[in-house]
Design a protein that fits this description.
With about 500 residues, the chain is mainly beta. The protein contains 2 helices and 43 strands.
Length: about 500
């Protein structure tokens, strides 16, 4: 391999950059076709063979004899790694924190990350599908612009997402993920600069920073948020509260963006809204918008058409969203998706508690796709809810039906819910993997899984415990079932 740096057994490498002067391990020429690598050999001492801090890598990390390594505020950039065996082609061990290993892209193919799974990863952005369970993991779900992750833009999910117990960034805020940080010193603040959130949004969209920071308090407003703007509560704990003023309209409307398909980001808020006769939405996107919501509580949102409504040709990414005590809604999350769009939708590490008498908690509607899993529900908890069906999926057309799945539900817990858990209609394809259903008691019809029409349902490594379980399918539908554990009647 060309341009390889070799760390011999017994030697150690310490590359300790700073936030002002990061260290770069990059190709000699600006040509990503030149393979570059750092080979680190372990010895018998058991100590760290490599320590990296504030480093930007365009290289492979090649471990020999499983070296112990640590990475802190590092960014791995080179998409060429897909061609040369992966980011970590050999076993390694150690830790990674506050770092970016983004998906990368070359010819539409995902980067091969190799033995990243051997590291104890926390508070980092990693490729979609990463199975680690460390704190603060964000999936790079291809909706985020890779170049802005290297030097983040205002709507990067990496801002203020690092270890909260680490030292702060120079602007005094929580540490960012990656080798570079995004200064919030020039953010527009409420109420310090403007009395209302909407006035601050209108001012921020004309600035370079494009960030609005809202102090704790109660704000009675309906908002319009343009693409490219970050709206954030100042406190992650004492969140500012937004209460809508007009029950039949949207609390927050995201403007369509047919020109550039930019991202909007909203984080650290509590939102309440009482609608009328299931009309209006709490948050609603236009077309061609990438919307990321983080650390938001939706409490006592009642009688709405939808709490979150995502329109066609947009994407929705939800992280650590809490839905509590929301009743009599059409649905809590409505996702209208298209197989012709490259964008995907992710609901990750969210909780749904005590939401009652809704038509559904999550409703997917779209056509089928040529790619697997355009919609993913990962690491969520559903407790003490009632709805006609907790999760529904309606795929309207039969395009690509033999090679793709509409929805993946994995690593999720369903506890003490009433009525149908999963309902699939028309041409939907659903996978349920590594999830647990316990103490769920459907009513007289005794349904837990309901698959209608020409749908396909695959259940793998699922635990069903202390539940009143039944399974109903139409003659044209298909189901493949593998339980890892159960103590009740199962189909």
């Amino acid at each position: 391999m060309n341009n390889k740096v070799i760390i011999s057994p017994g030697a150690k490498i310490k590359a300790l950059g700073t936030i002002d002067k990061p260290i770069q391990f990059m190709p000699i020429a600006p040509d990503w076709d030149i393979p570059v690598g750092i080979e680190i050999n372990a010895d018998d001492s058991g100590g760290y063979a490599g320590e990296f801090k504030y480093c930007l890598f365009g290289t492979q990390i090649i471990g020999i004899n499983t070296p112990l390594l640590s990475f802190n505020n590092c960014t791995f950039k080179n998409p060429m790694m897909i061609e040369i065996g992966g980011l970590f082609p050999n076993p390694v061990k150690g830790s990674m924190k506050n770092s970016i290993v983004a998906r990368g892209n070359m010819g539409g193919m995902d980067r091969e990350i190799g033995y990243l799974y051997n590291l104890n990863v926390s508070y980092s952005l990693v490729p979609v599908g990463y199975k680690g369970t460390g704190e603060g993991i964000i999936w790079d779900y291809e909706n985020f612009d890779w170049e802005t992750q290297v030097k983040p833009s205002s709507t990067s999910p990496c801002i203020n997402a690092g270890d909260p117990y680490d030292t702060t960034d120079p602007d005094g805020t929580r540490k960012d993920i990656g080798v570079y940080y995004f200064s919030l010193n020039d953010a527009v603040r409420v109420p310090q600069n403007y009395a209302t959130i909407q006035e601050a949004i209108d001012a921020a969209k004309m600035t370079q920073t494009k960030v609005v920071i809202v102090s704790s308090g109660v704000y009675t407003e309906n908002l319009t948020l343009p693409y490219g703007v970050r709206l954030m509560g100042e406190s992650e704990v004492n969140k500012p509260i937004i209460v809508g003023t007009q029950p039949q309209t949207n609390i927050i409307s995201i403007i369509e963006d047919w020109a550039s398909q930019n991202t909007c980001l909203i984080e650290n808020f509590r939102i309440e809204r009482n609608g009328e006769n299931k009309t209006g939405r709490v948050i609603s996107t236009g077309n061609n918008v990438k919307l990321l919501l983080k650390n938001i509580d939706f409490d006592n949102c009642n009688n709405n058409e939808a709490v979150i409504y995502k329109d066609l040709f947009s994407s929705l990414n939800l992280y650590k969203i809490n839905f509590n005590n929301n009743s009599n809604n059409g649905t809590l999350i409505y996702i209208n998706y298209s197989g012709w769009s490259e964008l995907r939708n992710l609901i990750k590490d969210c909780s749904f508690n005590n939401n009652n008498q809704n038509d559904s908690l999550i409703n997917f509607l779209g056509d089928n796709t040529w790619e697997e899993f355009k919609n993913i529900i990962n690491g969520n908890v559903f407790s003490n809810n009632s709805a006609s069906a907790l999760i529904t999926c309606n795929t309207l057309y039969e395009f690509f039906n033999e090679i793709s799945s509409s929805l993946l539900i994995e690593r999720s817990i369903f506890n003490n819910n009433i009525n149908t858990a999963i309902k699939s209609d028309l041409y939907s394809r659903i996978n349920i993997e590594s999830s647990t259903f316990y103490s769920n008691v459907p009513p007289a019809e005794r349904l837990n899984f309901l698959i209608n029409d020409n749908t396909r349902l695959r259940i793998r490594n699922v635990i069903i415990w202390d539940s009143t379980v039944s399974f109903t399918k139409s003659p044209a539908s298909e189901a493949s079932i593998n339980y890892s554990d159960f103590n009740c009647a199962v189909p």
